[in-house]
Write a structure and sequence with these properties.
mainly alpha
Length: 81
């Protein structure tokens, strides 16, 4: 019969939590991201409804501001674990 080889006791074992998140989400992350996600389209809607008079008198740059709020929200959502 074949005899099995003894295993070396000093074999490296990878940790079991290798792919898991180490910490929880910061408490401010999700509320801030959701607020920015709502605030961005609201900014653009107010801009269109008031015919470019509000929220700021910067003309079409209000669209850039609204999309910047939404982009910041998406950047925060990438950190959500």
């Amino acid at each position: 019969m074949a005899v099995s080889k003894k295993r070396d006791k000093n074999v490296y074992k990878a940790p079991r939590n290798l792919g898991k998140a180490e910490t929880e989400n910061p408490k401010w992350l999700v509320p801030t991201a959701v607020t920015l996600l709502v605030f961005g389209p609201a900014w653009i809607v107010v801009y269109y409804i008031t015919r470019a008079n509000y929220p700021l008198p910067i003309g079409d740059w209000n669209l850039v501001v609204g999309f910047a709020f939404m982009a910041a929200s998406m950047a925060l959502f990438t950190r959500w674990k």
